[in-house]
């Protein structure tokens, strides 16, 4: 493997770890040390069998690149969960609002109204995100 490819691989892995969070000493957001970790064997959850159906059912009614103005219901522009690259770049933020923690507790800030995911779905979301949203 060339030196350039090795460095690219190292940087890619570092970026992936930054998305998941390495933990810190505060308890007020991503990196609070209680993030779900990707299981050692990885995850069977993929964009096709979990991520896209979850996001479409609960998130993209507001967080979609096709929605503008009042149709976003307050979702900040650019936080478009219909774009997988944006989901991956915001994995910690998404998990903090709608996923779960390592202790099994769930984050219920989003979505703000029905339909809402069940706790088991939120735990799956956390795992899928922790594994890089494959």
Characteristic terms for this protein:
single chain; 134 residues; mainly alpha; 5 helices; 42% helix; 0% strand
Explain what this protein looks like in three dimensions.
Helices cover 42% and strands 0% of the residues. It is mostly helical. The chain is globular. 26% of the residues are buried. The N terminus is likely disordered.
How would you summarize what this structure contains?
This protein has 134 residues and is mainly alpha-helical. It is 42% helix and 0% strand.
| Oligomeric state | single chain
Which structural category do the helix and sheet elements fall into?
mainly alpha
Shape by Cα distribution: globular
> How many β strands by DSSP?
0
Radius of gyration: 15 Å
Largest sheet data: none
Distance between the termini: 24 Å
> Overall mean pLDDT score?
82
- Along the chain, the helix and strand elements come as HHHHH
Strand portion: under 5%
With helices defined by DSSP (H or I, 4 residues minimum), what is the helix count?
Answer: 5
Unreliable segments of 5+ consecutive residues: 1-29
Q: What percentage of residues falls in helices of 4 or more residues?
A: 40-55%
List the helices and strands and how they pair.
Layout lengths: L2 H18 L26 H12 L25 H6 L1 H8 L20 H12 L4
